[in-house]
Specification:
The complex is a heterodimer of chains A (about 110) and B (about 120). Chain A has about 110 residues and is mainly beta. Chain A is about 0% helix and about 50% strand. The chains are: A mainly beta (about 110), B mainly beta (about 120).
Chain lengths: ~110, ~120
């Protein structure tokens, strides 16, 4: 099984700040990685697929990068609607999610 | 607009069965693989099962193999999850998802509580 380790688990941040969330795989996943946002009401939205491709309609302040076992999601300038849970997902083998990062207002 | 609406959740006793449904609209249902993903209370997301666009192939996580069955009715644009021999650890919100490039669109989820 491929394990995904997300860090940090909680990320306090301020409006306008740039933040980065990391996702490390237990083995190479060859860019087979997506990022999702989950709001407190449970709504889940895909932000990025295949490591770095931005989903249509997702603001350009979101970006993804990485290769091999190390991947990251960056938000260039936080807005109020960005405070939520974020999950990475690998699909190199059967799908597994990272443990999640709670982005909260400092 | 893609819409996925789950239904069928509720309270069920351990060992009993429950069937979830997911009504799809806004896209050509039989062109896409579909999946179920669950989230236990206060926990992270877990993939449960996937079915191919034509229903010919199905895949399950180990913990539900032999107990859960994913199926679809393309004429009704509906996805199903039959859950048998339910356990307390199956308590979760169950989401259906369109599986292009893996979980492109999600429903709002339906809560299943397994308790006596």
């Amino acid at each position: 099984d491929i394990q995904l380790t997300q860090s940090p688990s909680t990320l306090p941040a301020s409006l306008g700040e740039r933040v980065t969330i990391s996702c490390r795989a237990s083995q190479s996943i060859s860019n087979s990685l997506n990022w999702y946002q989950q709001k407190p009401d449970g709504t889940v939205k895909r932000l990025i697929y295949s490591t770095s491709t931005l989903e249509s309609g997702v603001p350009s302040r979101f970006s993804g990068s990485g290769s091999g076992t190390d991947y990251s999601l960056s938000i260039s300038s936080l807005e109020s609607e960005d405070f939520a849970m974020y999950y990475c997902l690998q699909y190199a083998t059967y799908p597994t999610f990272g443990g999640g990062t709670k982005l909260e207002l400092k | 607009e893609v819409q996925l609406v789950e239904s069928g959740g509720g309270l069920v006793q351990p060992g009993r069965s429950m069937k979830l449904s997911c009504a799809a609209s806004g896209f050509t249902f039989n062109n896409y693989d579909m999946a179920w993903v669950c989230q236990a209370p206060k926990k992270g997301l877990e993939w449960v099962a996937t079915i191919s666009y034509d229903g010919s192939s199905t895949y399950y996580r180990d913990s539900v193999k032999g107990r859960f069955t994913i199926s679809r009715d393309n004429a009704k644009s509906t996805l199903y999850l039959q859950m048998d021999s339910l356990r307390s650890e199956d308590t979760a919100t169950y989401y259906c998802a369109r599986d292009d490039k893996v979980f492109a669109y999600w429903g709002q989820g339906t809560l299943v509580t397994v308790s006596s």
